From TrEMBL:
One of its GO terms (molecular function) is L-phenylalanine transmembrane transporter activity. Pfam families: ABC_tran (PF00005), BCA_ABC_TP_C (PF12399). This is ABC transporter ATP-binding protein. Keywords: ATP-binding, Nucleotide-binding, Transport. GO terms for biological process: D-alanine transmembrane transport; L-alanine transport; L-isoleucine import across plasma membrane; L-valine import across plasma membrane. Residues 267-301 are annotated as: Disordered. Residues 17-263 form the ABC transporter domain. Gene3D superfamilies: P-loop containing nucleotide triphosphate hydrolases. Coiled coil: none annotated. It comes from the Bacteria. Residues 269-279 have a biased composition (Acidic residues). CDD domains: ABC_Mj1267_LivG_branched (cd03219). GO terms for cellular component: plasma membrane.
Amino acid sequence: MTTDTTTTVAPTGERVLDARGVTMRFGGLTAVRDVDLHVNAGEIVGLIGPNGAGKTTFFNCLTGLYIPTEGEVRYKDKVLPPKSFKVTAAGIARTFQNIRLFGNMTVLENVLVGRHTRTKEGFWSAVLRLPAFHKAEAASRERAMELLEFIGLEQKADHLARNLPYGEQRKLEIARALASEPGLLLLDEPTAGMNPQETRATEELVFAIRDKGIAVLVIEHDMRFIFNLCDRVAVLVQGEKLVEGDSATVQGDERVVAAYLGEPFENAPGDEELAEVEAAEAHADSADTTTDAAPGKENDR
Ligand SMILES: Nc1ncnc2c1ncn2[C@@H]1O[C@H](COP(=O)(O)OP(=O)(O)OP(=O)(O)O)[C@@H](O)[C@H]1O
């Protein structure tokens, strides 16, 4: 076997991610300011906040895409190297807000590419299919098929990724991230563009990932999804962490509601809906008045 297939699963409760004082400035703009966040093994943690709050920038600081202007990020007590492939090799995998699959490669090949940090052959060998890649392929293939089975796409292993329906492409991205055998998985808006059924399936998938001993940090705008799923939720507003706590605490916090004004929670009434309800009620009231004033009108219709 040419592959080193696993990172060690941390015991439940052990701190896998520890970000302290993370600040990210772009010129004069401070996108993330002095954010502390930790994730323990066995946990699903949510990161929410209005558009532009700094969530993706924070993810990029955790995964070596950005080097934070200030602060430190540790994974299992080791400071992370400032290079994304080294972060992946250390044990943190991620998906992106926009799907980043290799559309002209098969479903299986996409997962195999995700294994490059766990094989000797490396990324380019996998992409260019060099001879060394073929030698390692059997073992990697077996593991990749296991992952496809786990996400329910084993029947489509030979399909081109670009031909998958949208919801399955998102699942495939998760399988590709899992192929690097992470101890922590970062999901950036995993249900964006999904219908309610696909969203529910993603929820189940994330629980199953957690049950495999992989901690999860997830960014999402779908509040129902977040509050159902997460053990803990942190709220970023204008780059700063406003509140952190369990779902009930965060949902009940007036500052969180205020931060979302003008951008209502999904499935919660917003200003437009409230205006519609008020207009309908006003209309009903005036109809009642008319009916009261003209008894018997009902029978005329
Ligand atoms: N590379 C960059 N250069 C300059 N400004 C940036 C860069 N990346 C992000 N920003 C800015 O940082 C702020 C935070 O953006 P970010 O994408 O992290 O927010 P977000 O919370 O992920 O938003 P959304 O929910 O819309 O994805 C925004 O004002 C954005 O314009």
